[in-house]
Amino acid sequence: MVPGEFLISRLYCNPNKKSFNIVFHSQFNDNKVDSWKEVEALVPLKNLETVYLERNPIYYDAGNQLKADPAYRRKIKLTLPWVKQIDATLAQ
Question: Where does the pLDDT of residue 16 fall: very low under 50, low under 70, confident under 90, or very high at 90 and above?
Answer without folding.
Answer: low
